[in-house]
Amino acid sequence: MRIDALIMAAGKGLRAGGTHPKQYRKIGGQTVLRHTISRFYDHPEIRQVRVIINPDDTQLYRDAVTGLAIAAPIRGGAHRQESVRLGLETLAADPPDLVLIHDAARPFVDNATIDGVIAALSDADGAIAAIPVTDTLKMSHAETIEKGISRNGLWRAQTPQGFRFPAILDAHRKAVGQEMTDDAEVAEHAGLQVRLITANEDNFKITHDGDFARAERLLSRPEMLTRFGMGYDVHRFEAGGAVILCGVEVPYHKKLAGHSDADVGLHALTDAILGAIAQGDIGQHFPPSDPQWKGAPSHIFLAHAGKLVRATGGEIINLDVTLICEAPRIGPHRILMQQRIEQILDLPPGRVSVKATTTEGLGFTGRGEGIAAHAAAAVSAPK
User: Fold this and answer.
1) For residue range 255-285, what is the model confidence (pLDDT) as tens digits?
2) What are the residue ranges of helices labelled H in 101-247?
3) Which residue of 93, 238, 254, 310 lies most exposed, with the fewest beta carbons within 10 A?
4) How many domains does the chain have?
5) CA neighbours within 13 Å on the CB side: how many for 74?
6) What is the pTM of this model?
7) Range of the domain at 285
8) Which of these, 382, 370, 372, 359, lies nearest to 271 by C-alpha position?
């Protein structure tokens, strides 16, 4: 599969201020254009990157791409739509199967977005990166609200916008002389099917002078690594009237024995999180020899582990815990357990999984002597 990328850099970018067009201003010591080119130049599936420029900016372009093995720039037209068509006509001499069209002023597009657009083209004529609208929308007249507008089905279009090459070239040829807002509209006008791929807010377009400060902040963020940890815990049964599992009281004719409330699920999760950030285990932070933790609710331990993650500048990506027992039944309480863990760690819905299994009557859990728990944690943390 041959995939080319066209970077649109022919605009003047006057709203951003400065002495140069915004794509030639620097962030993090490099031009915006250089950052943008690199996102596609370094992508393993992109055959070549071609940049469409204003001929007046030729020297600025040469300075921006010094050291890159990149083909000569393409001369742009009077407006964006014409510039795209001229770029496509240039590629037609050795046509790709797919073409991605991207704004030079969006230097923070990530591989996941690029990959998503490419994947969508397997069964669609076109695909664009976009963000679903979540804010309440209002229509105004003279800065006074006229009415609200439903946001259902509304998206904010971004780039890259990807297409099957022959189809988008033909669409642009047919659109000569018409004014359309982006390549997706050109495609739609030609009757092509265009899909939406959810991108991310970092893929914003530098438009105003203040956007450069935002760009500098994004570049100064530490590189993040995904780290994993595992936890395991066991507690035996003793006489009682309920067990505490994953922060939820489950009626039963026994309880779990332990120095704290013996919540085997939260203990395993705590160890998994601590392991992911290389901060030891639950016993190091809350020694069982310390009388202050006798009978303590285990949500204290889990919340402490969550605070340590945040203190590193990290974030809990997801948690998974499996409770192993013949009884009590976990299923009726599973959702409540997930919600309780999310509440303790202040996590959004969907990041916690609670499961249960038996050992088919084998071992100490099979004999009803106690409960075990396995847990896994994925954490994003600074490198």
Assistant:
1) 999 989 999 999 999 999 999 999 999 999 9
2) 111-120, 165-174, 183-189, 211-220
3) 93
4) 2
5) 23
6) 0.64
7) 224-382
8) 372
